[in-house]
């Protein structure tokens, strides 16, 4: 009987595998297109289903900040978008089969995101639908709708599983370090021609880098700056500002330590931090340098360093170092000078002129866009863009850059990128989510486990700084929503929900103690 069952099982397996192998061989023998590559990729992933069932949550967290795209999928989505769909599907299957999924999110952010998702879908339906030119449509811009909806779905996928307590530093560290993959897109001028196939997975910053058409003296590599910021966030999350200074720690020769958990030893920790600040400033983006300053200020207060005896020393250094270094700013590379252009210092006229032109360009966009806000208060403009109208805009002559940016909704302003496409209802939904997220991160910062103190402190500081940057300095809602949902879901997954203050044990009130007769003394 057992032999019969084994023979039947073998026949079924061969009956499934042989036709699949023949079909895959046919696909590999013919010129590959997107459909063929997608089928081959799915076939290669089938044996990995048991591993995905176990590690899909970790893979989703790692891919959330990666710059990797899947070129063989129609529309070339980011890896984190595909992993969100896969992880959420496996989570639903686990809940149906095993019922071992415990959703850790409270009601308020969940309702806010559901409301926001309904507004996104409703706006798409009222403004011409989700335009997907990659699938043969007459308009494009639908990828933004999908990106927003997947960012909301990713919140539920991440928050549905708890991070193992013994791997908290690993998960959070990989979440931030995954952004280092943006560095690949900045290395195009120095990558040999035979290795440039990698840019099918990691998009290059600027296609002109392939042909050497960029001025090397004023080369701005956005991917390098993003990678440096990701590494800085990793150091802040792992050590905090107090650990970065390393007061009272013994200096070690080896830079890294793995015993008792991964960490960076002193004085290497501070040296790496300063080097990353220089690398981040070399991109020429003022917003990144402002973000670093705000991180330090937020951690200074959240960690309570202003109450310590070192606070006068730290404040003195914060004043003396810029006072000594900034007078020499005009000798620095042009890109670093541009990053410092928001300060009242003397810099190279070329860097100053480029920064002023960028500011004027933003002001012109805002002057054209702000008067149109009342038109989109009730029903937003949406993200769908007609291909033919876009081609006409690009052919308008000298003002094409400004007109194209306005038509593509590249406003360089967080509130405008939210209010105009989604109207006042979308704005209400996002503000609702921000308030709910603030409560979640604040409670986990205050009442979280002591072993997660540094992690929760930086997650809260990260949220506060990114919210300020989005509302005041620079933001793009379709790109930043994933940042906000990811950081809140990560905090919920880390702390198994929202932490609350521990209840003190009730003490009996002497005024309400029952009357009892004293016991007679024993003779």
Brief summary of the model shown:
It contains 18 helices and 4 strands.
Contiguous uncertain segments of 5+ residues: none
The fraction of residues in strands falls at under 5%
- The total count of helices amounts to 18
| Number of structural units classed as domains | 1
Q: What is the spatial order of strands in the main beta sheet?
A: 1-4
Order of SSEs? HHHHHEHHHEEHHHHHEHHHHH
Radius of gyration: 27 Å
Largest sheet: 2 strands, antiparallel
User: Mean pLDDT across all residues, rounded?
Assistant: 80
User: What distance separates the N and C termini?
Assistant: 85 Å
How much helix, percentage-wise, in residues? 55-70%
The count of β-strands is: 4
Question: What structural class do you assign from the helix and strand content?
Answer: mainly alpha
Spell out the key features of this protein.
single chain; 523 residues; mainly alpha; two-stranded antiparallel ribbon; 18 helices; 59% helix; globular
Could you explain how this protein is built, in words?
- The protein is an all-alpha fold and 523 residues long.
- The chain is built from 18 helices and four strands.
- The chain has helices at 2-29, 34-45, 49-63, 79-97, 107-126, 142-159, 168-177, 222-245, 268-281, 286-302, 311-325, 334-339, 349-369, 387-394, 400-407, 414-447, 453-473, 477-495; strands at 139-140, 256-257, 263-264, 385-386.
- The strands form two sheets. It has a two-stranded antiparallel ribbon. It has a two-stranded antiparallel sheet with strand order 2-3.
- A hairpin with a 5-residue loop joins strand 2 (256-257) and strand 3 (263-264).
